[in-house]
Each structure stands twice: as structure tokens, then as C-alpha cells.
Amino acid sequence: AFVHIVMISCYTSLVIFFIPWAAMHDAVRSDGKDVADYQSFALLTQTSLLIVVSAQMFLDTNYWTAINQFFLWGSLAVYISVTFTFLSNGLFFMFTSSFPFIGAARNCLQQSNVWLTIFLTCLLSILPTVAYRFLLIQLNPTISDKVRYKAKEEGQPTPAPYRPPARRVSTRRSSYAFSHSRGYGNLVTSRKFLRLRKPSSLFNRKEAANLCKQLIFCRI
Amino acid sequence: MLASSYKDEDGHISVSGSGAAAAAGGGSLRNKKPENTAFKQQRLPAWQPILTAGTVLPAFFIIGLIFIPIGIGLYVTSNNIKEIEIDYTGVDMSSPCFNCSQNFSWNSTKSCTCSIPFQLDQPYESNVFMYYGLSNFYQNHRRYVKSRDDSQLNGNEESLRSPSKECEPYARHDNKPIAPCGAIANSMFNDTLELFYNDPNGTKVQVPLTATEIAWWTDKHVKFRNPGGEGSDLAAAFQGTTKPVNWRRPVYELDSDPNNNGFINEDFIVWMRTAALPTFRKLYRIIQRRNNLLPTLPRGNYTLEVVYNYPVRSFEGRKRMILSTISWMGGKNPFLGIAYITVGSICFLLGIVLLIIHHKYGNRNNGADVSH
User: Fold this and answer.
1) How far is B37 from chain A (nearest CA, A)?
2) How far apart are CA B361 and CA B350, in angstroms?
3) Which of A194, B43, B50, B309 lies 20 to 30 Å from B258, alpha-carbon distance?
4) What are the P-type ATPase C-terminal domain coordinates in residue numbering (chain A) (predicted)?
């Protein structure tokens, strides 16, 4: 896995540098002025790097909650705003030597060949990862992949319909079984299971249905 | 592709039917438990990108189908751009500029001129842009790039008198501060290039060249300012400073037009925008189009007259003059078109390969070895 990551990193670094290098070789803006200068090249490489990293995170995140969305899109938005702030007139006038990149974003990011280069770089960097993972799923599916595939084929499982239990087939389960699920700590340690009791006084029917929904191997 | 997995809503098992012991224990514990909200119990609705065949394969095909026309468009546009490069370094003995390149010395007052004839096979329409290009000139060397004082170039009086130490050793000369200081300014390109059209009936017509609008607007109006404010006498404003060591004229004599003199001289600004690669071109002049009927540069014989001031032989550099038309994607650069076509076709082929693999081997997902 380490070698795999090293290979992907090398490949991505080469792509992120050499595609802008080749695209900027003797390139000019659409109004003839320079775009192959140091600051525009740096900005181009930096922007494509950010987008590639965000895309990799998108592929790697397993559970996309609202928080993840906020932080990922937020980081891209912060990058854009920070770039334009650092390259704005105001900061240049305040701290002249520290922010010499003034105007680079406005002039460079307007050009369509810059955006086309960014798009190409990002796609070329992500393509191997996507293809590799897809191949893995096809050729070597893990059990979770297979389960997911089957679940997709059968559709979402509907919540177990509530049926009144026709017969009490031993609703008593050992405390060992219960202790494997969350929330039963109190129940298990409450000594209810030590004595034989009539099942109807132990659970009411609603609780029985609830419990059986959680336990995969419950047959009611 | 989506698998919404709602995390289980287990809540707490209500033990209301239980004995008193549990209720009492639960009462004191309840203060320390986090609230039963979706955020704190990690029950937020979640989403997971899954690479299924239904998403990945169409995506590959669509990307392939989008990229190939874009690539073809870029390549065709790039091919339609007309460009001519003329190397005038004077390396061979047969070159007209050979004598100038050999006899260079820093304090020669007589400037050396040479003229190079060339011809255009096609007429150039619309605005034609004239660039000077340098090779093997590393404007991206780190100490070189840092060797400037941006506050001095912004017209700051204090920095004018005492340049920053980044400019060393080009900060002071003869006990006076150098304006503009630094190695970048010191090595400014100072050849003069002029273009003449040889009429079919023998006369030499000078092609009019525009020297404004060649630098970025933000550079000219925001980043570079002359000391002393607008409209002041530049020679007085620069009193007490001296010109850079390798310049022939001081900075307030760069141009007779007061809007193009001093630090806001556009040639100077263009030079100060350091290039990223060792082979670069910078905009020198623009040949404006005359009217829509006549081409800007008709085909025929031309002469390039060079006032050869800039020495490049010592570091094996090369100088050239480039005439080029411009399109929406910039100058002539076939790389982007070719790259798009290549990546598009690779994507398409990869999509086909993955489709074949999916058909042959994808049924392993249906294997009966999934335990319930």
C-alpha cells in the first residue's frame, strides 16, 4: 500500500507540474500580453493542486455528512477568497514587499487556456485512481461491495412490518446475545434474566418488535 | 451511485417497565449524557460516493466524448495562428548580426545596427503582436527573482533613497542609491527592433509599432508608480539617485511620453514581470490593424532593423523576434489541443476496456458466497 501511494504521488506531482509547463511554453494571453510569467505559472499550478487534492478527498470520504460538505467546499471557497485577497490592491499597499503577486489572479484566471489547463491537469490526476478503484470492485470485490451490490439490487429494505407475534417462540434470549448491541447495558445488568418469568411481563409487544428489528438473527 | 445509509435510530431503550434500581441509576446518569440530537449522536444523514459500473463507465465515455472535440477545436485554432520567428543573435558568420555580437563592449557609445531580411508567405490579419524572445535566460532563478524592491517601484520616497537589501549588490553605486535597484532591472532588455516593409516597387515603408498597452493594466496603474506623484518632473523626483550600472540612460529618460516614462515605462514593466521558464517571449510592440479590408502585414519581403545592445553570447543565449497573430486561446501552442485529444481518446479506450472487464468479470458481485 505504501508503494502504491508513492507511485500515485509521483505520478500526480509530475502531472501537476509538467502539464502547466508544457501549456505555458510560449503561451500568451488572448490579448497578446504575458501569461507565462512566474507568478501566473505558480498560481496555475497551485490552483490545480488544490482542486486535485479536494477531488481525492471527495473520493476517499466514506460518509458525506453536512459537515464534510461544508468543510470541503468551504476550503475551496477559502482558497479562492484568500488568493484574491492576497493578490488584491489593498494588501499590496499595506505590506508592499510581502505581497508582490498583485494582479496575478485577475489577469491569469481570466484566460480560457488557463482554465482548460487546470481542468486537464485535475482530470489526468484523478483518472488513474478512479479506474484502479473501479477495477478493484469489479475484479476483487470485498464483501462489503458484494453486500452493497445485493442491497442495491433488492432495493432498500423496508422497515420490518409490525405483526403481532402469533406464538411466543422463546422471546427470551441470553444476556450474552443482548450485550452485543448498544443500549442494553442497563437491561443486561438489571438482573432480569436470572429468573424464569412469564414472557409477557418481561417485554411488551412493542419492545419485542423493536428488539427483533435490531437483532439480525431474531425470528418472530 | 448513492447509498444513503441512515445511521440507526436506536435511541435509548426505555426501561420504564423495569425495577426501581434502574430508574434511580438512570436519573443521575442522565446529566452527563450528551443530548439526543442528530448532531451529537452522530446520526446525521450521510451519503457515500460509490463507484458502480452505472456511473463510472458513462462518465468515462462522456469525458472522452467531450475532450476530443475540445482538443480538435484547440488544435485547429492553434494551427490557424500565424507566427514567424527570426533568430538574430548572430551566431554564424553568415548572419548579418555576427559583427555586432562579436564587438560588444559595455561602454561603447556607438551602437551597432544590423538588418535581417525575411519574408512573409501569408498575409497577417487583425492585430499582429511583436515579441522578443530569449533562450537560456533563467529569469526564474531565485536570487534573481527576489532582487527587486517593490515599494521603490511603487513610488515610495523612502525606498527610493534607501533600497531594500534584497537588491544587493545592485542597490548603491558611487555612493548613491540605484533607481530602479536590483538585478532584474539591471538586466533589462534594451535592443531596439524596427520593421520595414519592402514595397514591390522598391520603397521601404516603416511599419508603425504601438508601444502602449503591452503591460498588464494592474501592473501599469497599481503596482508601478513614479515617485513624486502624477505629472511631476521626473528628473527632479529622481534627484540623488543614479541609473543602474548596465543601463545607458537613466530611468527618467526611457521615453519622451510622460505617461510612459520613469517606472511606468511599459517596456520596463514587461521586463520586470519575470518569466517562469528559461525560454520565454515578452511583448515588445503591437502592430494595429488598419482597416478590415487590407491585411495588417501583407505578404512580401520585410526587413528587421536591430540596434544590437543586449549581449547574450556570453551565456549561450539566443535572441529572436517573433511576429504572431492571436486567438482566444492565446498564441500558437499546439500542446493543449494534442493533450486534450490524447486524454480524450485514452479515456474513451479505458471506458471500453472497463466495459469489457465489467461484462466478463463483473458478475462476481452476484456470487452466492455472500453470507446473510
Assistant:
1) 15
2) 16
3) B309
4) 2-141
Where would I find the H helices in A61-190? 66-86, 89-94, 104-108, 112-139, 143-154, 175-178, 185-188
- pTM for this entry: 0.76
Which amino acid, residue B344? G
DSSP structural state of residue B193:
E
The single residue listed with the C-alpha cell 418469568 is A197
Contacts of A92 (CB under 8 A, 6+ apart): A99, A100, A102, B222, B223
| DSSP string covering B96-152 | TTHHHHHT--TT-SSPEEEEEEEEESSPBPS-EEEEEEEES--TT-HHHHH---HHH
Between chains, do A186 and B140 touch, taking CB under 8 Å as contact? no
Q: 3-state DSSP call for residue A97?
A: coil
Per-residue pLDDT at A86: 82
Residue of B nearest to A45 (CA): B276
**Which residues of B are less than 8 Å from A131 in CB distance?**
350, 354
> Which secondary-structure segment (H or E) carries B204?
strand B204-206
Q: Lowest-pLDDT range, A105-109, A125-129, B203-207?
A: A105-109
First to last CA, chain B: 23
Q: A92 and B223: CB-CB below 8 Å?
A: yes
User: Cell numbers at residue A127, please?
Assistant: 483518472
The total of structural domains in chain A comes to 1
Specify burial of residue A103 (Cβ count, 10 A radius: 0-12, 13-18, 19+): buried
Cell of B338: 494534442
Within-domain flag for A165 = no
Residue B103 makes CB contacts below 8 A (sequence gap 6+) with B112
Taking the Cβ of residue B13 and every Cβ of chain A, the question of whether any pair is shorter than 8 Å is answered with yes
* Local confidence band at B309 (pLDDT 50, 70, 90 cut-offs): confident
| Cell numbers representing residue B196 in the block | 520595414
Residue B277 and residue B284 in contact, taking contact as beta carbons nearer than 8 Å: no
What is the SS3 assignment for B116-131? EEEEECCCECCCEEEE
B39: Cβ–Cβ under 8 A, 6 or more apart, which residues? none
Report the DSSP beta bridge partners of residue B297. Answer: B124
Rounded to whole angstroms, the Cα distance separating B274 from B263 reads 16
- What's the grid cell of residue B146? 527576489
Least Cα distance to A130 among B203, B354, B10, B278 occurs for B354
Alpha-carbon distances of B31 from A140, B9, B26, B36, B192, rounded to whole Å:
48, 21, 9, 12, 84
Instruction: State the average pLDDT over residues B159-174.
Output: 87
What is the DSSP secondary structure assignment for residue A60, as one 8-state letter? Answer: H
Q: Chain A residues with CB inside 8 Å of B74's CB?
A: 116
The complex's ipTM works out to 0.79
Q: How far is it, in rounded angstroms, from Cα B166 to Cα A134?
A: 52
Count how many pairs of residues, chain A against chain B, have C-beta atoms within 8 Å.
221
Residue A171: the pLDDT is 64
Q: At what angle do helices A112-139 and B53-80 cross, to 10 degrees?
A: 150
Q: Which chain B residues are Cβ-neighbours of A184 within 8 angstroms?
A: 13
- In degrees and rounded to multiples of 5, residue A28 shows phi and psi of -140, 170
